[in-house]
């Protein structure tokens, strides 16, 4: 083989190697974006997963609830006292009392009786008896029914103690009547005579019972005994409280763990605390609004 031929072969081999090196370099460059793209996708996926892990979970807030009130209804106010009690406390009142006005008898009610035992020139005995009932519903904005009743109960006691014209005011707790009860007594001078006023305010669960009982000796008749009147008033309060429990099957309408979710406007006694029954502030807070009653002592 000639020297020229060998030289040309060597040149071609050298050229082929350079071409092969350039080809490999181009392949490497072409593969680089793919690697970078894959790395970018992997990085983005990790960021999204991390964001999901670190972002706080959003959950719906539970609806506010409050424990349901124990008592869901009230008895008829004019039926809470027995016939025997009425005959002894207001003997001349007749068979039925005067029912107070109410726009919701399941939430509020009242009944009154008055009795005048008129003996002409020998004088007369006057008696007046009033029972008022007020029930409070549980409300998510205002609170449980029994707590609302407690607030009203406290207010009724304060009003009775501060009655206009009241003299010799005395107050004492009463046992065995509902969850709590207070008896308030005082003397009240009117143009008709001297009256002995007795008020018993009792709370049983979410219901407040107010009993007003007063008496006077008219036309020269002697005044009734205040202690006897108070015993009668407490007797009436016990019967009224028992009637409330009986109207709700004795144990109330509440079961353990029960809840109620009511709006502020749905409270059956949203105006409770300013009731119009005669046992509310309009009567128990004003001596002039009370009547006397008529039974000989």
Walk me through this protein's architecture:
- It is a single chain.
- By secondary structure, the chain is of the alpha+beta class.
- The protein contains 5 helices and 9 strands, in the order H-E-H-E-E-E-H-E-E-E-E-H-E-H.
- A 7-stranded antiparallel sheet has the order 2-3-4-8-7-6-5. Strands 1-9 form a two-stranded antiparallel sheet.
- The longest helix has 52 residues, at 3-54.
What is the total tally of β strands? 9
Mean pLDDT: 76
Give the strand content: 15-25%
What's the number of helices?
Answer: 5
- Subunit arrangement of the protein: single chain
Gap from first CA to last CA: 160 Å
Order of helices and strands: HEHEEEHEEEEHEH
Question: What class would the helix/strand composition place it in?
Answer: alpha+beta
Uncertain regions spanning at least 5 consecutive residues? 25-43, 251-297
Query: How can the largest sheet be summarized?
Result: 7 strands, antiparallel
Helix content: 25-40%
Order of strands, main sheet, comes to 2-3-4-8-7-6-5
Instruction: Using the CA coordinates, give the radius of gyration.
Output: 43 Å
The 3D shape can be described as elongated
């Amino acid at each position: 083989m000639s020297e020229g031929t060998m030289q040309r072969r060597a040149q071609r081999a050298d050229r082929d190697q350079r071409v092969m090196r350039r080809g490999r370099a181009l392949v490497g460059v072409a593969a680089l974006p793919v690697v970078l793209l894959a790395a970018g996708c992997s990085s983005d996926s990790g960021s999204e997963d991390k964001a999901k892990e670190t972002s706080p979970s959003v959950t719906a807030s539970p609806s506010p609830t409050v424990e349901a009130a124990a008592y869901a209804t009230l008895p008829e106010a004019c039926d809470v006292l027995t016939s025997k009690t009425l005959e002894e406390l207001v003997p001349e009142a007749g068979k039925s009392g005067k029912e107070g006005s109410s726009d919701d008898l399941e939430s509020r009610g009242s009944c009154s009786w008055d009795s005048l035992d008129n003996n002409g020139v020998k004088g007369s005995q006057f008696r007046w008896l009033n029972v008022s009932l007020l029930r409070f519903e549980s409300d998510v904005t205002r609170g449980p029914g029994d707590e609302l009743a407690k607030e009203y109960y406290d207010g009724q006691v304060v009003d009775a103690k501060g009655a206009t014209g009241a003299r010799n005011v005395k107050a004492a707790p009463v046992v065995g009547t509902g969850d709590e009860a207070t008896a308030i007594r005082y003397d009240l001078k009117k143009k008709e005579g001297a009256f002995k006023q007795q008020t018993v305010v009792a709370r049983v669960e979410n219901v407040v019972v107010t009993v007003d009982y007063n008496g006077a000796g008219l036309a020269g008749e002697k005044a009734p005994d205040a202690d006897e009147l108070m015993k009668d008033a407490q007797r009436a309060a016990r019967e009224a409280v028992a009637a409330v429990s009986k109207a709700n099957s004795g144990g109330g309408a509440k079961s353990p763990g029960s809840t109620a979710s009511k709006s502020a406007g749905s409270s059956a006694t949203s105006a409770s605390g300013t009731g119009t029954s005669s046992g509310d502030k309009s009567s128990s807070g004003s001596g002039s609004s009370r009547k006397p009653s008529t039974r000989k002592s």
